[in-house]
Write a structure and sequence with these properties.
α2 packs antiparallel against α3. The chain has 2 domains: about 120 residues, Up-down Bundle (Four Helix Bundle (Hemerythrin (Met), subunit A)); about 150 residues, no CATH class. The protein has 9 helices and no strands. The longest helix has about 35 residues. With about 270 residues, the protein is mostly helical. GO terms for molecular function: heme binding. One of its GO terms (biological process) is cytochrome complex assembly.
């Protein structure tokens, strides 16, 4: 555990430094800071991969069955996504917002949870289904986070253009059409993953005979969040709403995703130690 904590703390420190350099580049063009920030992000990804390898050794299998591991994987996926975006033109602000989310999760995971928090021993009969549920949920959350980042950037750029406030930062952002397209594409990828994840969770509950869990408040908020995203896709395809309206729908859906995760502390649905 000491080795894991050391790796985690080193990655956390480098992550913070990377964010500072990326932020400095977004504030004012700083190619050196951008390269250094991206380089540090690569090192962060390596440290995170090393930490996950330690967890793999500790668990003697894929480490995904605790909230700690879930958030660890989520942050790692965000780092990998950011590195992919780093090779695209005008991706500086996308990287900044993505990693603000990734770093926040990584930091909260360090101070809030431990690798020993909760297990799934009592769900041993459906471990395979739950593993797929968790993996798909993580990928879905990462895709929806990316979609939300583009939605936030869309609203920011739209507001600046509406008030005719031009500066170098505005010129570095992708166009409204591009951000709208990227947001929709990311959400379109994330929603089916989320739906498949929820189906697997439902199958696991039924197989284990724990149907009273369907009465949990978390189920309601999950369905509301999913309904918001499905409505977003329907409205987007029907072209009935403006880009700003669709961006707000995307952010609203993500708000329910965040609420859903926060409800874990009071919900029986993810009482994994049961």
């Amino acid at each position: 555990m000491q080795l894991l904590n050391g790796i985690y703390d080193a990655a956390l420190l480098l992550y913070a430094l990377s964010l500072l350099f990326v932020f400095s580049d977004c504030l004012k063009r700083n190619p050196g800071g951008k390269r250094l920030g991206t380089g540090l992000l690569v090192v962060v990804g390596i440290f995170q991969a090393a930490g996950l390898a330690v967890r793999f050794s500790q668990e003697q299998g894929l480490p995904i069955f605790t909230p700690y591991d879930f958030l660890f994987w989520f942050s790692f996926i965000i780092v990998l996504t950011s590195l992919a975006v780093a090779y695209t033109r005008g991706g500086e602000f996308t990287i900044l917002l993505l990693n603000m989310a990734g770093f926040s999760v990584f930091l909260l995971n360090r101070v809030w949870l431990t690798a020993e928090d909760h297990t799934l021993q009592s769900w041993s009969a459906v471990h395979g289904w739950l593993a797929m549920h968790i993996i798909l949920a993580n990928l879905s959350f990462a895709a929806l986070t990316l979609g939300t980042v583009f939605a936030i950037m869309y609203l920011f750029l739209h507001t600046r253009l509406k008030h005719k406030k031009w500066d170098d930062r505005i010129r570095r952002l992708p166009s409204l059409e591009t951000m709208d397209k990227y947001s929709y594409t990311a959400i379109l990828a994330g929603v089916p993953l989320l739906l498949a994840s929820l189906v697997l969770a439902g199958m696991s509950i039924v197989a284990e005979g724990r149907t009273p869990l369907f009465q949990d408040t978390k189920v309601l908020t999950t369905l509301i969040g999913l309904a918001v995203y499905i409505a977003y896709i329907f409205l987007k395809r029907s072209a009935r709403r403006s880009g700003t309206s669709m961006a707000r729908w995307a952010i609203a859906g993500y708000g329910f995703i965040i609420l859903n995760f926060l409800l874990n502390s009071w919900s029986e649905f993810h009482g994994w130690g049961g």
